[in-house]
Amino acid sequence: MKEQLVEKIVSETYTTLGLPRNKSRTTPHVQARAAVAVATKRYFTQTPIAEALDIHQSVVSYYKSKHQANLQHWGGYSRVYHIAEDIADKKIYNEVTQVNISRASKEIKILERKIKHFKKLKEDLQGTNLLRTHSL
Prior knowledge:
Blueprint: H1 2-17, H2 27-41, H3 46-53, H4 57-73, H5 77-125, H6 129-133
Helix pairs in contact: 1-2, 1-3, 1-5, 2-3, 2-4, 2-5, 3-4
């Protein structure tokens, strides 16, 4: 699941930036890789990030170590990073929300089955001394 989510973040970032995904060493491509690597590092380990970007894991660490300097001194990087960060944050938020909705739906189904069980139990006890002695 995490690999697919990283892939979605990478793809959407490149699409938003209007860049093809390739290993080009031109500034826009390097900035995109660096920005996505740093933006996703808050949520994922280096391995799925490196795989999605088709880079070595050590490059993810390198991008992270140079991030603050890049924000201050590398023209255009800040804009690219904020785009990647926004996409990553939204994708993660949506994923967590979907997981929570799924979990809540399962809990609701369990509670509905319990309600049904106890209603049936109450019906079965109608007319017995147990129900009159211990009202449910």
